[in-house]
Each structure stands twice: as structure tokens, then as C-alpha cells.
């Protein structure tokens, strides 16, 4: 704060604090225009300095507060603009590849596609507009583009677990409302050749199929099965719990080759705005709708009636 | 700090207002496009993954 040296101008500055008022008390020599910064030892001098310091501190604190608010704006809005721009790029690239008849997903070496779109994700519960291109990989750069497919987990429709991660707040927030999913809700994954309709597992133990009787029920927040081998619809786990994306979630005993159920797992942070826990939603494969091949490695991308019907079911 | 800045902006009141606005916008842009993106990965608020294989 270099205001102390500019104190002679105090009374003139526009927008500055009003000039200090002389305190009552034993009157010194009458102070006229500008005369108060006189030569004699001046109590005003000390007052000015204190005032300047306090004002500086106040401004600093207000500035810090404004910066924190701006950071919230950045997290909640600005990162979304960036993410949607990136998402648009990967979506367009994937569309072009499909139209050219390229990008058959490799069984191995998927990691080479890091940051590259591999499939599209739709969730009828979240409305017609909800469409995300899933990218390969789950590092920060991948997840700024959209939901990311965990390296080493299975491909859509395969036996085992197709596991994806996505941001909950900001960065496009694909999984903002993951907690609003209900038992039996459809999660649709569109690959180049096929529509896979996964069904969110109902509350309670279920590790093979989507229990129709549970459809529409809210997912329980926690579920602990003593045997540890049943897969819940939703679980809140510690950030270090990597077992939830195993070929059979939370069952390390079954290797991918022996997995018999086709799972989809989605992970995001929990609660919102923190990384204290992870929310995990599991679904199992229901219908599979192959696309019509149109030759030269291309497929008909029109949305089939069965898929459209899933939106009407939930009123979207 | 701000008073000092204001006193040192040249020109008429209107001109000062324009300059002050530009300065504010420049600082906000610096925060949004440089500082926040740089600082954010170091904050424990945006981790959505579990450790994979």
C-alpha cells in the first residue's frame, strides 16, 4: 500500500474515503485548506497510517472473497463451456469415423485410443438432450471431454464390467444427477454396430439380472452384503475402492474370462463438490439392438423404435 | 490500493471508468483462463475415479 506517501492528495481523490475529520480537543493552530499536514509533530500522521493499513487490509479481504466467488463461477459454469467444446470435438470425430466405416473397437490395445471417443451414452431418465460421447481413459484430460472408460475394463456388451467415470459438478457434469437414477432405469450405450440397453440394478442384492419388481424404486444409498458377492444398484464407497469396477464388481475371485454377467458401472464423486467418497451405480445388460449394416463397414445410425420407446416409458 | 490505482489512471472520469473496467476484465480473464485451470487439479474436489487395474 503506497498510500502513505500520497496522503497529501487524500482530500482530492475521487472515490476515496472522505478526508479525515479533525478530532475535537485542544485546538491547535486553526487548520485551513491543506494546512493539516504541517511541520509540527502531528497525531494525524499516525492516524493516517493506521487508516491506510486498515483500509488496505479490508480491500485485501474483500478482494480475496471476490476471487473465491469467481472460482465457484469457474467451477460451475466456465469449466462446463470448456468441457462442452471438447465433448463436441470428440463426438464429431466419432461420428465421422462411424460414417467412414472406421473404428471397430480393438479387443486389446484400447489404451491407444486414449482421449478418443469410443461410444455414445444416453439415459432416458435424464431427458432427450442427455447424450455424451464416452472417451477412452480416465485421466484428467480425458474426463474434461466427457465420461471416460476405465482402461482394462471390458467393452460395451461384453461379459464382465464396462466401467466409466464422469464428473459430477462442472466439466460438463455428465453424472450430476446420477443419484436420481431409479431401479430399472435404462442406460443406453451406442457403439458403432450395436445399441446396448443396460438396466440399473434394483435396491438389494442382485448380481445377474434387473429385477422387474424393483423397477421405479429409489436406489438405496448404501448396501452391504455380508458375502460381498452381490452387486447393488448403488453404493457409496471410499475413493480407494477399486474393486467396484472388477469384471464382477466387488468380487475379486472371478477373473474376466469366467465372468458370466454383462455389467455397466458408473463412478463419480460424492457428495457433490467434494471428493470424500465415490458414488457407484451398477447396471446389467438387458436388450441388445444390433444396427443394420449398410456395407463398407458402415451401419445405419437411426434411432430404433425400441430405443425411442425407452424414453416414453419414463415420460421423456 | 484501489484508490491509488484510480488516482493514477490518466484522463477524464469517463476515460478512467473505461480503463478500470478493462483492468477488471483483464484480471478476471487471467483468473478464469490461466490461474484457475492451473490451480484446480491440485484441489481435492474433482476426483471421480476409483483406482483401476
SSE order and pairing:
The complex is a heterodimer of chains A (316) and B (53).
Chain A: H1 43-100, E1 117-122, E2 131-136, H2 140-143, E3 148-149, E4 160-165, E5 186-190, E6 194-200, E7 234-237, E8 262-270, E9 277-290, E10 293-295, E11 298-299, H3 305-313
Parallel strand pairs in A: 2-3, 4-8
Antiparallel strand pairs in A: 1-2, 1-5, 3-4, 5-6, 6-9, 7-9, 8-9, 10-11
Chain B: H1 2-8, H2 13-39
Q: What is the H/E string of chain B?
A: HH
Q: Largest interface, by Cβ-Cβ below 8 angstroms: which chains and how many residues each?
A: A-B, 53 and 24 residues
Q: What value does the average pLDDT of chain B take?
A: 90
* Shape, principal axes of CA atoms of chain A: elongated
Q: What is the tally of beta strands of chain A?
A: 11
What is the N-to-C order of secondary-structure elements of chain A (H for helix, E for strand)? HEEHEEEEEEEEEH
Average pLDDT of chain A: 82
**Poorly predicted tracts of residues of chain A:** 1-19, 27-36, 221-226
Number of strands of chain B: 0
Assembly category: heterodimer
- Please indicate the count of domains of chain A: 1
Q: What ranges of chain B have pLDDT less than 50 throughout 5 or more consecutive residues?
A: none
The CATH C-level class name of chain A: Mainly Beta
Structural class per helix/strand content of chain B? Answer: mainly alpha
Question: Distance between termini of chain B?
Answer: 53 Å
Strand count, sense and barrel status of the largest sheet of chain B are: none
With strands numbered from the N-terminus, the spatial order across the biggest sheet of chain A is 1-2-3-4-8-9-6-5
CA-based shape of chain B: rod-shaped
Helicity range of chain A: 10-25%
Written account of the structure:
The complex is a heterodimer of chains A (316) and B (53). Chain A is an alpha+beta fold and 316 residues long. Chain A contains three helices and eleven strands. In chain A, a hairpin with a 3-residue loop joins strand 5 (186-190) and strand 6. Chain A is elongated and about 95 Å long. Chain B is mostly helical. Chain B has a domain at 12-41. Chain B is built from two helices and no strands. Chain B has helices at residues 2-8, 13-39. The radius of gyration of chain B is 19 Å and the shape is rod-shaped. The model of chain B has no long low-confidence stretch (mean pLDDT 90).
Amino acid at each position: 500500500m503506497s498510500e502513505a506517501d500520497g496522503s497529501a492528495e487524500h482530500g482530492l481523490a475521487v472515490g476515496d474515503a472522505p478526508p479525515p475529520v479533525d478530532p475535537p480537543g485542544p485546538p491547535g493552530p486553526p487548520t485551513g485548506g491543506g494546512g493539516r499536514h504541517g511541520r509540527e509533530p502531528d497525531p494525524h500522521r499516525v492516524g493516517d497510517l493506521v487508516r491506510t493499513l486498515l483500509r488496505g487490509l479490508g480491500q485485501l479481504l474483500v478482494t480475496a472473497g471476490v476471487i473465491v466467488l469467481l472460482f465457484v463461477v469457474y467451477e460451475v459454469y466456465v469449466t462446463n463451456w470448456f468441457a462442452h467444446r471438447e465433448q463436441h470435438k470428440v463426438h464429431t470425430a466419432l461420428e465421422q469415423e462411424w460414417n467412414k466405416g472406421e473404428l471397430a473397437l480393438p479387443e486389446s490395445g484400447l489404451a491407444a485410443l486414449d482421449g478418443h471417443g469410443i461410444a455414445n451414452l444416453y439415459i432416458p431418465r435424464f431427458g432427450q438432450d442427455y447424450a455424451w460421447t464416452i472417451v477412452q481413459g480416465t485421466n484428467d484430460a480425458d474426463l474434461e471431454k466427457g465420461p471416460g472408460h476405465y482402461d482394462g475394463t471390458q467393452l460395451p456388451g461384453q461379459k464382465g464390467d464396462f466401467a466409466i467415470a464422469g464428473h459430477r459438478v462442472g466439466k460438463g457434469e455428465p453424472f450430476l444427477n446420477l443419484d436420481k437414477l431409479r431401479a430399472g432405469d435404462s442406460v443406453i450405450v451406442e457403439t458403432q454396430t450395436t445399441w446396448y440397453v443396460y438396466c440399473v440394478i434394483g435396491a438389494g442384492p442382485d448380481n445377474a439380472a434387473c429385477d422387474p419388481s424393483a423397477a421405479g424404486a429409489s436406489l438405496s444409498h448404501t448396501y452391504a452384503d455380508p458375502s460381498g458377492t452381490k452387486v447393488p444398484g448403488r453404493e457409496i464407497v471410499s475413493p480407494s475402492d477399486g474393486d467396484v469396477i472388477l469384471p464382477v464388481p466387488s468380487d475379486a475371485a472371478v477373473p474376466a474370462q469366467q465372468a458370466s454377467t454383462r455389467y455397466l458401472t458408473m463412478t463419480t464423486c460424492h457428495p457433490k463438490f467434494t471428493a470424500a467418497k465415490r458414488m457407484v451405480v451398477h447396471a446389467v445388460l438387458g436388450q441388445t439392438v444390433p444396427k443394420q449394416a449398410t456395407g463398407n463397414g458402415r451401419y445405419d445410425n437411426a434411432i430404433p423404435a425400441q430405443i425411442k420407446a425407452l424414453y416414453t416409458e419414463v415420460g421423456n | 490500493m484501489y484508490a491509488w490505482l484510480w488516482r493514477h489512471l490518466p484522463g477524464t472520469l469517463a476515460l478512467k471508468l473505461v480503463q478500470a473496467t478493462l483492468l477488471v476484465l483483464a484480471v478476471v480473464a487471467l483468473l478464469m483462463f490461466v490461474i484457475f485451470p492451473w490451480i484446480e487439479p491440485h484441489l481435492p474436489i474433482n476426483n471421480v475415479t476409483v483406482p483401476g487395474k
